[in-house]
Amino acid sequence: MRPRGWHGLVVASGAIIGLAVLVTGVGWVASLRTRSASYTVTAPVSRVDLQLASGNADIVASSSPAVQVRRTESYAFGHPARERRWTTDGVLHIVSGCPRIVLGSCSASYEVAVPQGVTITVHTNSGGIHVNGVSGNASVRTRSGNVDVEAYCGFHLTAESESGNVTVVTACPPQSLRLQTGSGNAAALVPPGPYRIAAVSGGHRERVTGVKDDPSSVFTITVESGSGAVAVEGGL
Amino acid sequence: MSASADATSAPEILLRATERELRTERFLRELAYIVLGLPLGALYLVLVFGGVVLGGLLGAVWIGLPIVLALSAVLWRCARLERRLANRLLDARISPLPPLRARAEGGAWERTRERLSSRAFWRGVTLLVARFPVTVVAAGCTGIAGAATGALLVLGVEGLTGARSGYFGPFAIDPGLGIVLCLLAVPMGVLTVAVADGAAVVLRALARLLLVSSLPAGAPVREMLAQSLGDRSLAIAYWVGDREVFVDERGHYVPLPEAGSDRAWTAVDYEGRRVAAIIHDASLEASPELVQAAAAAASLALDNERLKADLRSRVEELRASRVRLVEASNAARRRVERDLHDGAQQQLVAMAVELRLLRNRLGDRPEATELVDRIEDKLRAALEELRELARGIHPGILTDRGLEPALESLAASAPLPVACEIELAWRPPASVEAVAYFVIAEALTNVLKYAQATEATIRARYDGEDLVVEAEDDGIGGADEAKGTGLQGLRDRVGALDGTIKVVSPQGRGTLVQARIPWRSVDEFLGGLA
Q1: ipTM of the assembly?
Q2: Whether the predicted pLDDT of A2 surpasses 60
């Protein structure tokens, strides 16, 4: 029934594909590299705009008047991510992009120390965002990864994730707080209100505790999740 | 290019092309089986677990039972569908599933219990349950391999046409890499087919494991062939060389199906000799090559079976010829009796009448009348002897009026009291009648000669397929079969009709002669011959 040559053909094909996979895998592991670079932007900056194709963003407040950036990139097959940065009208733009890679890996993570009061905007395609102690307005957004904001003490914060958890802890009452996630959980821990609170979950798992909900308040908290649980808690 | 074309002969190219076509067709059928299995498997799961839930919830209530019963019929249909799919798409060669029997009588509870206690049913249900998970795994493996092939092809073509830029591993995507990726897609495609093959092997094994009814080891060749070719109606006809006919296992003649009918036959040869013919459904799912292959594999076993069938056919032939001989001899006897009765006997009777007239005419001539009287006495004696002779050959009353009157007249003419216990609702076939009559006649003769009996009884009755005739006396017993040559002759005639004679004769306690003659088989046999 089975053609005589067929068996040999299958074995040969398996050998070719197996060899190709093996060579690629070994080459991948052997060519993995990680390197870091740091720089300081001394020009006065009122806003930092971070656009990452792939990688984590770690924003901390510092007492220094300069913006300090530490970039860590990891890549394989000798194709690292590339960075463009420029400053216009007091806005520091940092754009990191990977080459178009079908097979391989590429990411560039940033640790940025910003002066107090500087506005930050962060967008990353894949990676988590961690913000600590920032007192300026902030807008952070990731497509896949968690967003974690601690000790926030600014006026306006928008934290979004398409598929990840969003957790925000504020040290001062924010004027407007907006948490949004597609499929993760969203939780905000804020000083006790009163706030105008809108907690909406597609899965109808909403919890609001320890805060005063006052529709006439000018302080607004919006927490939304497509399918996860949402929570707003009051505390210190 | 032309050099390589020259190196390969034309038939070889053709053969490879055919192999490729078969390969492709088989791959598509395997894919169809796997892809169809996903919705079907899901449906089976719903049906089975729906049935379990319904049966569990409503089992205690009466309406649950008809639902479960109907559902089990549906599941059995699904199992049959699976068999067809496996046969069509995977060449599983599973013979048809037996109908799910449910007695017409009995309440819903009995019928449900009977159906649910069938092992074949549960094996079928097991297949239905297993079909989805196994198919999902098979589809997953095949799908991953197929997706890899597709990705390589798409990337390769994009590289060739420059539709995509970027890197593939360390390499920039360009026409050169495109060629390499396209080339890699070929072995990946081969692997995809191999993975589908592997999945099909697993799925086929599963279907066979659960749908093929297990056969005891050493099952007859016919069962094995029916099983492997998936035709329950398959029959085997064995070749009898010297008569140039096909016969069945019992040695009966088998006509081969004509071309164009719904039956077809395939010849089986062993070592160059015609051995048998496999008679099967013309619309058999297996190809002629498959039948040939199965036949070749079974040819040795079939040759052995053929020898047995040949022997049986000879025995059958012998039996038929014995019956024909008995029948012919009975016919001859009847004819002789008829001739004697209508010819010589009538002549003698006419002579006796004329002698009486002659005697009257002679008047008072004493010496002449005395002579005529002597002649008349001798004539009467001759007539009597002739009648006796005719009766010995074949009593006319038996032909004309049947066994019962014949036996009664036999009893009436015996010189000792003979009781008749005859219960015959209908006349047996002539040859059986004759043999039965002569058994009783011979037995009564022996009673008169040896038994010193004061009375005797003759009996005749039907016992199932047999006509049983008996003669019993209260004589001295101790009859020795070996001495009675008459009985030995009867034993042969009874034996020719597949009957038996039994003689029970303990010392001093009378004698019983009993003959059992199967009347129906003779009837059918003669009917078949005519």
Answers
A1: 0.72
A2: no
Q: Are residues A170 and A222 in the same domain?
A: yes
Interchain CB distance below 8 Å, A13 and B190: yes
B290 touches chain A (CB under 8 A): no
Asked if B323 contacts B431 with a C-beta cutoff of 8 angstroms, the reply is yes
pLDDT at B311: 81
**Domain count along chain A:** 3
Check CB contact of A19 with chain B, cutoff 8 Å.
no
Partner residue opposite B169 with nearest CB, options A6, A100, A103? A103
Task: Check A100 against B166: CB less than 8 A apart.
Answer: yes
Closest CA to B456 of B413, B514, B511: B511
Is residue A87 domain-shared with residue A136, that is, in the same domain? no
Q: Comparing A195-209, B455-469, B471-485, which segment has the lowest mean pLDDT?
A: B471-485
Q: How many CA atoms lie within 13 A of A74 on its CB side?
A: 10
Residues of A in contact with B188 (CB under 8 A): 13, 17
Nearest Cα residue to B320 out of B255, B251, B393, B254: B251
Question: Residue A87: inside a domain, yes or no?
Answer: yes
Domain presence at residue A122: no
Same domain for A24 and A37?
A: no
Residues A40 and A9 in one domain: no
Q: Answer yes or no: do A151 and A221 share one domain.
A: yes
C-beta atoms surrounding B381 within 10 Å: 10
Nearest Cα residue to B128 out of B192, B52, B61, B17: B52
With an 8 Å Cβ cutoff, are B187 and A103 in contact?
no
State if pTM tops 0.80: no
Q: Which residues of B touch A78 (CB under 8 A)?
A: 170
Residue A186, in any domain of the structure: yes
In three-state secondary structure terms, B257 is coil
Q: Which residues of B touch A9 (CB under 8 A)?
A: 190
CB pairs under 8 A between A and B: 60
CB of B200 less than 8 A from some CB of A: no
Q: Which domain holds residue A109?
A: 32-49+62-114
Question: Over the stretch A144-198, which tens digit does the pLDDT of each residue have?
Answer: 999 999 989 889 999 999 999 999 999 888 899 999 999 889 999 998 878 899 8
Tell me if A100 and B186 make a contact (CB, 8 A cut-off).
no
Residue A108, in any domain of the structure: yes
For residues A155 and A90, membership in a common domain is answered with: no
CA B446 centroid distance within chain: 45
Distance between CA atoms of residues B28 and B481, nearest Å: 79
CB contact under 8 A, A102 and B188: no
Same domain, A140 and A226: yes
